[in-house]
Amino acid sequence: MNIFFGGVRGTAPRAAPGYTRYGGHTTCLLVSGQQGEILVIDAGSGIQEINRHLLESDRRDLLLLLTHLHLDHIMGLPTLSPLYDPDWRVRMLAGGHTGAHLARVVDRVTTPPVWPISLADMGAEVDLADHVPDAGPIDWGGLKITGTAVPHPGGCFAWRVDEPATGASFVFSTDTEWSAEAKRQDRGLRRLCTHPNPADLLVMDGQFTAEELPAHAGWGHSSIDQCAEAAIETGVGRLLVTHHHPDSTDDTLDRLEQELSRLFPGAALARQGDTIELGR
Question: What is the pLDDT of residues 50-63, one digit of tens each?
Answer without folding.
Answer: 998 998 888 899 99
